[in-house]
Each structure stands twice: as C-alpha cells, then as structure tokens.
Amino acid sequence: MGIGLCLLAGMSAVVPKASASDDATWAKRATPFNLSCPSRDQLIWSPDRQRSIELLCIKHGEGDPTYSLRLIDKNGGSSTLPLRDGAKELLWSPDSNAFFINGSESAYAGFFVIAYQITSGTPHEHVITVQAEKDMVDAFPPCKAANRDETACISEARDPQWNMSGVGWSSDSKSIFVFGEVPCSSSHGGIMCQVMGYRVDAANGTILKRLSARQVKAQWAGMMGWQMHVPDPPVYGTPYVPH
C-alpha cells in the first residue's frame, strides 16, 4: 500500500500524510506544507514568480507550533493570514491571482478546501463548497441509506460536512475542480465512500458542472494525487421517518 493512501476495495478513500512529504495528497500539482518547523520558512512561488506564500512557524516551548501564511508581492508588500488547523497543501491558480488550500480534520473525514482571491495585494477567503455539499445530499440522501446511523442522518442532511477537496484549476483560473466524497465510515451505511465531482466558480462556489465517480476517474486522474477507485453503487433501505 502506498504511503498516505488507503485504497479499499471498490472505495476511493484518501488518508492524509502524517509527516512532511514531497508529494501532495489531493491535488497532484499542489505544494505540501512543511509542517516540521524548519529553520528557514518555506516559500511557495506563484507561477509568474511575482508573488510568494511564506509559511511561518511560531514555536511555543514544548507545545505544538502554530502556523500562518504571509503573502509577499514583487514590490515588497505583504499580508498575513492564519493557517487553519489540518491544512496540508496549497495550489496557485494559473494566473497567480488566487490559490486554494486543502486539508483535513482526521484521517477519513473533515476534508476541506479553502479558496483565496488576491485583490490589491490582499488575499480574501471564499467559501466554495456549500452548493456542492447540498447537491451531494440530494444525490445520496443520508436518511435513505441502508444500515445508516439513524441518530445522525437528519443532522447530516441539514449540514453534511462531507469531504471536499480541490484537485485543480481551470486554465482560465475562474473555476476549481472539487472532489466530493461521503466519508468512508460505516456510520454512513449504504452511501459510504460515494463520490461526485464538481467544477465550481472560484469566487462563489456556484456549480458549473457535475461529474459522476466514473467521469471523475476518467477526466481528472491526471490532476489527482492518489489512485482513485470507483466505489460500488449506493445501497438504500427504508427511509427514516422521525417520530
């Protein structure tokens, strides 16, 4: 089994790497963050070499360090932003005016992607996965899944928090390719590990195109940092009706 990948039979799960690596986890062309608190801060250059992102490490004695990012432009201007816990990798847009960050809260769930657009030298965060998450709930209703966790399916339907990861940018830098996945946990019953792909507007998350799991594998394999397996079809049971 390859480092950082959990390839379950018929499943597509990705397990984030536990330590620094030269290889990205989700977006093949992304740069992984060096979270070992190196003596020299890591620099991640934009494609046009006019900007860079500096990973800043702040040590706290014997405790775990904290990290932030500093955007530096060619004229020496800079802007600092916090780095979310669990952030793992960064991918610049082709036009160097935006970037996204992938990360995870655990080994199988809580995968997230955050997009930033740079305006007047300052990065602005954009939420881009809300529509995709709602669309996945419509495609794979949690309370209809066989062997589901009945106490969790209602809250999941309202606020799924399913795995969302960026795998690449469109050539015009206006949209992001997002890999959506129901976490590979038995609590999700017959819909565990189900996959959808979304091309979303990089500024507001509007869904521009939907892809099935097979289409994702066929069209996005070259952008993905792992070998995706197409999951088995979902299995549904009697819909749950709250009393």
Question: What does this protein structure show overall?
Answer:
The chain has 243 residues and is mainly β. The protein has a domain at 93-223. It contains 3 helices and 13 strands. The strands form 3 sheets. It has a 5-stranded antiparallel sheet with strand order 1-6-7-8-9, with no helix packed on it. It has a 4-stranded antiparallel sheet with strand order 2-3-4-5, with no helix packed on it. A 4-stranded antiparallel sheet has the order 10-11-12-13. The longest helix is centred in the middle third of the chain and has 10 residues, at 130-139. It starts with 30 loop residues before the first strand and ends in a 23-residue tail after the last helix.
Q: What's the short version?
A:
The chain contains 3 helices and 13 strands; from the N terminus they run βββββββββααββββα. The protein has helices at residues 130-139, 153-158, 213-220; strands at residues 31-32, 42-45, 51-60, 63-73, 78-82, 87-92, 98-103, 112-119, 122-126, 163-169, 175-181, 195-201, 207-211. The protein has a domain at 93-223.
- The DSSP helix count reads 3
* Alpha-beta classification: mainly beta
What share of residues are in beta strands? 25-35%
Sheet with most strands: strand arrangement: 1-6-7-8-9
Query: How many DSSP-defined strands?
Result: 13
What does the overall shape look like? globular
Q: What sequence of helices (H) and strands (E) makes up the elements?
A: EEEEEEEEEHHEEEEH
The chain-level mean pLDDT equals 89
| Sheet of most strands | 5 strands, antiparallel
